[in-house]
Amino acid sequence: MCNDSKQTNTDSLKEADSLVQILRDSLPSSVSPAVVSYIAKPPFSALSIRELSLHRMANLAVPSLQFIKEKNLVPGAILLRSMVETTAILYCFYKELIEANKRGNANRLFHFMNKTLLGRSGFNGWNVYNHAIGKLITQVANDYEYFDSHYDNLSGIAHPTYDGLLDAYGTITENPPLLNLGNFAFERKSRIYFDSFIPTVKLFIKTYTDIIEDIKRFADLCEKNILDKMNAKSKG
């Protein structure tokens, strides 16, 4: 059984490495508004969110996987948990884009972008708006059932509760009564990491790939609204 587990981890590590390479190979050094629109600003903000999210995802994935290669599960899982959050935000943004394009109305999307994604802290007149990440995780889980359980499992590793600390770094024996200390997390919980890492990165890559067409449709919607207002103003 132990050999099977090691083999599974080896295979999973190879797949994880290939996914990280896809992220790194996709990183842009710049983006131009011309990709979506020269007229409307919100589509460029949407495109910027897409590309910034990719950079964040790659920046988290590389050290996270390196920690796992060194059998340091806790820091690797903490970074992976942030990857899950990044994926959730981009995915929910994608869903909002789809709905805005279907309705032909972007008011709800603007709220999501301005408050959730582009908001700043409460200095210089800005209002604080913290969108509960748990709600976004739940939204993704409506389409991908595994998503919230993976997040919960990673949180169990990331949070320094007593059970989490003991599970990662300790073993208690009764005779003699001792707390034996060491780094036991990888041996005990490594499958949680791989079972979360691979589907999370796959979902991010899929979302990153699919969202561009809806950003372009969003640009068409914004440009139409601008032109309609200009025409109405000229007639009035």
Walk me through this protein's architecture:
There is one protein chain. This protein is mainly alpha-helical and 236 residues long. The chain has a domain at 14-26 and 40-120 and 132-151 and 197-235. Helices cover 75% and strands 4% of the residues. 31% of the residues are buried. Residues 1-5 and 120-130 have low confidence and may be disordered.
Q: What is the CA-atom radius of gyration, in angstroms?
A: 22 Å
Mean pLDDT value: 88
Order of helices and strands: HHHHHHHEEH
Strand order, biggest sheet?
A: 1-2
Count the helices. How many?
8
What structural class do helix, strand and pairing data support?
mainly alpha
Low-confidence stretches: 1-5, 120-130
Strand content: under 5%
Extended strand count: 2
The rough form would be described as elongated
Helix content: over 70%
CA(first)-CA(last) distance: 78 Å
Largest sheet: 2 strands, antiparallel
